[in-house]
Amino acid sequence: MKFLHTNDADFRDKFSQLVRRSDMDMSGVMPTVMKIIEDIRKDGDDALFAQIAKFDKFTPTSTQDLLISTKQMQEAYDALDNTLRESLKLAYERIKAYHEQSVPKTWSMRDEHDVLLGAKYTPVDRAGLYIPGGKAAYPSSLLMNAVPAIVAGVKGIVVCTPAIGGNVNSLLLAAMHLCGIKTAFKIGGASAIAAMAYGTKSVPKVDVITGPGNIYVATAKKLVYGEVNIDMIAGPSEIGIIADDSANARHIAIDLLSQAEHDELASSFLITPVEAFANEVSKHVASELKSLKREAIAAESIRNKAAIIVAKDMQECVELINELAVEHLEIATNDALSYMNDIRHAGAIFFGHFTPEAMGDYLAGPNHTLPTGGSARFYSPLGVENFMKKSSIISIGRKGIKELGKACMNLADAEGLGAHERSVKVRLEDF
Amino acid sequence: MKFLHTNDADFRDKFSQLVRRSDMDMSGVMPTVMKIIEDIRKDGDDALFAQIAKFDKFTPTSTQDLLISTKQMQEAYDALDNTLRESLKLAYERIKAYHEQSVPKTWSMRDEHDVLLGAKYTPVDRAGLYIPGGKAAYPSSLLMNAVPAIVAGVKGIVVCTPAIGGNVNSLLLAAMHLCGIKTAFKIGGASAIAAMAYGTKSVPKVDVITGPGNIYVATAKKLVYGEVNIDMIAGPSEIGIIADDSANARHIAIDLLSQAEHDELASSFLITPVEAFANEVSKHVASELKSLKREAIAAESIRNKAAIIVAKDMQECVELINELAVEHLEIATNDALSYMNDIRHAGAIFFGHFTPEAMGDYLAGPNHTLPTGGSARFYSPLGVENFMKKSSIISIGRKGIKELGKACMNLADAEGLGAHERSVKVRLEDF
Fold this sequence. Notes:
homodimer; alpha/beta; Rossmann fold; 3 domains; six-stranded parallel sheet; five-stranded parallel sheet
């Protein structure tokens, strides 16, 4: 596992490579993805069916072949063992309760000129949720994307998920039932993004597309951005942990591994002011690794993408973590909450010794769809607001235009926009 | 001026062309813009200086040559005539007061498991505002982009504006002084977007880029999206008006023209249930056109991009306007506010007979940077939230992990993520 010390002469060089960790190079897949999108835009279902046959290893001939029936979802849900079903329901309820706290609220006020001003929030008509399949078919991804859309009040929720050979993961089906999904398609990758962005005979055009995916999905989302809105462009998952020796080194080692087991490209960072603690965590990482089912993936991630940074004090730890702007940030110290105001950039912050990231991945309540690769500097976690938009509200009466109209005319005149000026002038004249 | 009647046999065909009015085809300029961005990314200032010499007709040789001094801004502000200066100040104050109403608020709560949950909002470190120059150098654009960034608390605000021959519009300079801009560069077009997205020796890398621009600017914003966040991809401006014969036909005609005078590609729509009123507005458009300084532009816009739609009743007007999802929507009827809940998609809604769009363009308070081309279905007006992002907050104690941990382990196990499961298990075991 890579070790960095902030007092090393080459520290800034090495650290800046960690800061620039996500150089997601889309140029390699760009031509392929552009072609997929263009074909679906031009030929609709014909292109879509052909792409599914090619990439997803089954051959649909009608819309019916693409649809996942609600009966199938119900059966999968009923077949769950009771404990797992209860756990899934608990997650759903907690995620829902959290997101209900953050619904943007319509507001209005009247100012001293009797002008009515405000903002009105409305859900988008249709949202498209992309949920990966295969090895990474996670029912939690469905909950985390569907619940904010449901809470926003979106009427038309459409799910796309790849079904290799026509089969969909049964846990994912069960989660669809739990979320009350009515419209779900067996469509994967860039084809799904293109179909939802432009619409085909089978797939309705949506207004917003959210959800994780590989580089093809990320590239397709970037390319359709503007035609629809998207949540963010996400890369491999990552964790940053600030801990001192009040933390349990074995716990911290496992938390690092819980990120590493996702993906060979996932990144895990520990920043600590205590060198001895750093060494201990490193030893536990090596020994815990061996007990993992996904040992090979985690080992490669730890080897290539992980780092332990020994800093001079907690203040330096905080400065470095702000530079990294990580997706998941754990602060495992006795006074973790006291750093609340110091953290400027992070997708989600997990405070204290009993808040492993996994709790947030499944059921703490906040969304697990989070900005990666440093984009927590400007992106937010997925939320209800991704499925709503606002309209500004303005209503001016006689009093308002009389008191404010002349200033507006001055500004319009200064910008050389005569009809703008005149639209106010005629109203003042015609009183 | 084009007339459509909803009871015409070919109405849906014609109307759907209006709905699909913005097919912003970036493919023509894409290679040029990609090259501009790649060059700046690779060669920094050298490429930037060369591009400015080529496109903006002056030849910078140092950072100093690019910078607009605060002294210059102050002088331009002092040189304004008093009335205009007061009008600009009034606009600034009103825009600021409105945006202060909509600052997203950090919140937290404890649930029944003593779990602390919340969301924390922080401003981005640096924002880049692109303000067009030349014919479309509008000080109002600067106010509308700078004020929400200021209200959000952004410390590093950077402005770029093209300076053809090295000269910057003096009104724009004055507006910069009013907003307290400290860092402004004479850089235009895609070069400015690239420089702010990737940073050069002269231009600091920012986190968010906002502001209007031509097809080169829009394409550059789309290409750098993900490296930075952007506000939206905007096309030509547009207005939709619902009016009945309680409105003054001449006023409505001028409101249509106030959009048309912006740009040959701007769109203006009137939807009314009263045929006689439609005819009257059309006559006024023809006669008012002649008095405009920007007659040629407005005439071409009205000829190619405007339409009057005669509907059977107000309900149909509302349905059609929701399909159009226009940037600016005026409702000019006596009972305008009663339609508040029926309007689902619009950038800004102007209610009543004394609320011409121009008032919102300059000083009503809400932002004039609004989604165009139907993207009000999913984009919001520019606001304080574009310059902030949130971090989710989670803190679980012993009670919380004891009561919720097992469910988390079940879900992690079901997804095959062993280290996730284990990160909870060890904490429960080590109690």
